[in-house]
Structures are given as C-alpha cells and as structure tokens.
C-alpha cells in the first residue's frame, strides 16, 4: 500500500497555539511590543549576537541590510546564482548590481576561489548563501572580504540553528539574515530576523524598520517625540507571529535534532547509490554542523532527474527540484547582461532532487522514502 508523504510539515503544536491565543487575548499584537523585546533578548543570548531586529521575512531582512549598508546605484555585490530571488532583489532594489559566481560541486555553496576574479573597484560586498543549512567556507570568504575592504551579509535563511566552527550561522559576517517562513525548520508562517554585532548598523536598521522614523528610540524613552529621520519601510513583525516564533526557537534544539537524525539516516542509507555511481550526495565540511534543513542528492546523469521526480511523486512522495539559477533567469538576461557561464551551478540545478524531510517524520515514512528511491534507481 502506497503512502502519501508531504514535502514539508510545519512542526507547530499545542504550545504554539496557546502562545498565539495568549497574545491575542493580551491585545498587544502590533509590532515592537513586549513579546518582540522578549524574543530579541532570547535570540541575542542564545545566538551570542549583540543585536537582533525582527522582520516580516528574510527578504525584508536582506533588503534592510542593503539599505543600512547604503548600497547605491552601480554598486556591485557578489553572490551565488544558485539562490532564491530575494538575495538578488535586495541589491537590485537599491540600484545595485548582483554579480553571480559559481558554487562548489559537492557542498552547493558559493565557491570562494571564484571571488577574486569578480572583484572590481565597484564591488561593495559579498552575500554567501548557506545552502541547506550548511555554513559556507566562511574563513576564506571573510579573509578575502577583509583584504578588499568589503562587507559580508550572510543569507542564513536556511541556516537557523546551524553552526560553523562552533558559531551560529548569521553571526559570522557583518550582518546575518534569518527566515521563519513556513518552509523553514523554525517557523511562524512568515517572519525573519536581521542580526549584527555593529551598533551603528543596528541603530540605522531600527529606523529603517520603523518607516524611517526614530520610533524605537521614542519607545525606549531616548527621545521625547519621534519623526521622519531617514529612508525606511515597514519591516516590523507582528507580536502575534513573534509569540509563535518564540515557542519555536525555544524548541530549536529538539526540532534540529529530529531533522538531523533523519538527514543522517538518508545520507547513510543512500550511500550505496553513490558508491554505485548513480547519485552524488552533499558533502559536509568538518567545520559545519548542519540543521537538517534540506536533504538532497544529484543524479549523476541530469537527464534522469525528471524521471526520478516523476516516479517519486507517482509513489506519493512529494520530492522536488530547486532553484532555476538566477544568472539564466529572464530578468538577469534582460537587465543585468549576465552572459557568464556558471557550469557547476547549471549542472547542480539540472540534477538536484530534494526529498521530504520534517521534524516528526515517522520511521515508516523514512523507510518508505529510502526503499522507493532504491527501487526507482533499479528500474530507470
């Protein structure tokens, strides 16, 4: 008998429901309230980062990062092409130009050996994207950035709870950006966070997030009235969602441990297919402690990827591919003139298969996925 296995299943339970109801009953469900202060403090202590600003999404955290770093028209920002469109949009909205570089064939993260050749006098910064919650090669990225006077904004949308050299992702660059989207390990439906150790940047971020006003300073009693002081937007997360995020982050160790155990089992039990030469598994750097956000493999023959996905879906397993590379997307071709070849990115994009993985995935569901992947490769 076939099973039906969804791609994701948000790990929301009674504690989250209770927290949301309590917030509603308390009546303070706008932004920047008591729960926001509580969650910011919790994150600052837990992730060991001096400053946290909660946002409505990781996209907003990235946009806010580019605003406070003062990205100007013509400025260049280096990033992988193998990422979600938000990474590039944040730069484009400021009039800047994303410069796409290739990824490593086995970690699917930005390849630091590609950086030097793409740095020009117009380059202002680098945005490493921690794919699947695995930290990029940050020592090398930070070393190159420092040598050229560039800032580093970590797109850690997928990396909440992951570490690199013992430090949480999102705390290794100038600014880190988190996602609490429904597809992420830790979720409140929609939400994000902006993390930094730089006081001047967070002061500006507070203003940008509050529509360009100094309302945050006013709420803290630092000024007697608030007014329009800078360009801004409305990036503030509702305390109703903050209530859910707070419970989720307090459960982070438990959720991460469940996902990592499933990830490790998939990696271990599909190893024979890699040995047989039909798939390639993700390689994890020794410095990286992953959070089990994505389990994926590449079909060695990219032409087989479509057959594998179809066969999995026919068996009730909601597997999927990932990004269409940004450098080959219509907008980039039309507006960025990015004619560069990124062969590894293209190959990974054409051959990647992501399997369902979520906290609470049962033993039977895991076995069903593993057995069917094996069976499909025996048949195709």
Describe the protein in words.
It is a single chain. α3 (58-68) packs parallel to α4 (85-92). α5 links the parallel β4 and β5 (151-155). The protein folds into two domains: 14-250, Aspartate Aminotransferase, domain 2 (3-Layer(aba) Sandwich); 252-379, Alpha-Beta Complex (Aspartate Aminotransferase, domain 1). It has 14 helices and 13 strands. Strands 1-9-8-5-4-2-3 form a seven-stranded mixed sheet, sandwiched between helices. Strands 7-6-11 form a three-stranded antiparallel sheet, with no helix packed on it. Strands 10-12-13 form a three-stranded antiparallel sheet. It has helices spanning 14-26, 34-46, 58-68, 85-92, 138-148, 199-209, 215-219, 239-250, 252-269, 271-275, 305-314, 330-336, 343-351, 363-379, and strands at residues 51-55, 76-80, 97-101, 123-126, 151-155, 163-164, 167-168, 175-179, 192-196, 279-281, 288-289, 295-299, 352-355. The radius of gyration is 21 Å and the shape is globular. The protein has 380 residues and is an alpha/beta fold. The longest helix has 18 residues, at 252-269. The chain starts with 13 loop residues before the first helix and ends with a helix.
């Amino acid at each position: 008998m076939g099973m039906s296995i969804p791609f994701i299943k948000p790990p929301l339970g009674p504690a989250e429901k209770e927290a949301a109801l309590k917030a509603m009953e308390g009546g303070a469900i706008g932004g920047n309230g008591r729960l926001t202060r509580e969650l910011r403090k919790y994150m600052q202590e837990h992730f060991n980062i001096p400053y946290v600003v909660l946002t409505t999404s990781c996209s907003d955290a990235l946009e806010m990062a580019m605003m406070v770093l003062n990205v100007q028209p013509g400025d260049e920002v280096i990033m992988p092409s193998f990422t979600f469109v938000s990474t590039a949009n944040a730069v484009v909205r400021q009039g800047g130009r994303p410069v796409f570089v290739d990824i490593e064939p086995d970690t699917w993260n930005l390849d630091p050996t590609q950086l030097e050749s793409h740095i020009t006098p117009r380059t202002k910064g680098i945005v490493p994207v921690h794919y699947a919650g695995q930290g990029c090669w940050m020592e090398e990225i930070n070393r190159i950035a420092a040598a050229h006077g560039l800032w580093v904004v970590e797109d850690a949308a997928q990396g909440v709870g992951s570490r690199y050299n013992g430090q949480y992702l999102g705390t290794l660059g100038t600014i880190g950006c988190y996602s609490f989207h429904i597809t992420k390990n830790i979720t409140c439906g929609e939400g994000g966070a902006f993390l930094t150790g730089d006081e001047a940047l967070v002061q500006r971020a507070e203003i940008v997030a509050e529509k360009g006003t100094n309302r945050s300073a006013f709420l803290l009693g630092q000024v007697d009235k608030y007014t329009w002081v800078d360009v801004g937007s409305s990036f503030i997360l509702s305390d109703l969602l903050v209530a859910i995020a707070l419970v989720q982050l307090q459960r982070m160790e438990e959720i991460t441990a469940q996902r990592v155990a499933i990830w490790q089992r998939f990696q271990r039990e599909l190893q024979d297919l890699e040995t047989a030469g039909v798939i390639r598994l993700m390689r994890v750097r020794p410095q990286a402690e992953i959070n089990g956000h994505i389990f994926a493999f590449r079909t060695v023959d990219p032409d087989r990827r479509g057959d594998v996905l179809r066969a999995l879906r026919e068996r009730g397993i909601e597997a999927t591919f990932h990004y269409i590379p940004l450098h080959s997307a219509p907008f980039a071709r039309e507006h960025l003139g990015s004619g560069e070849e990124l062969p590894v990115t293209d190959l990974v994009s054409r051959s990647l298969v992501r399997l369902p993985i979520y906290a609470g995935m049962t033993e039977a569901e895991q076995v069903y996925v593993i057995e069917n992947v094996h069976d499909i490769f025996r048949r195709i």
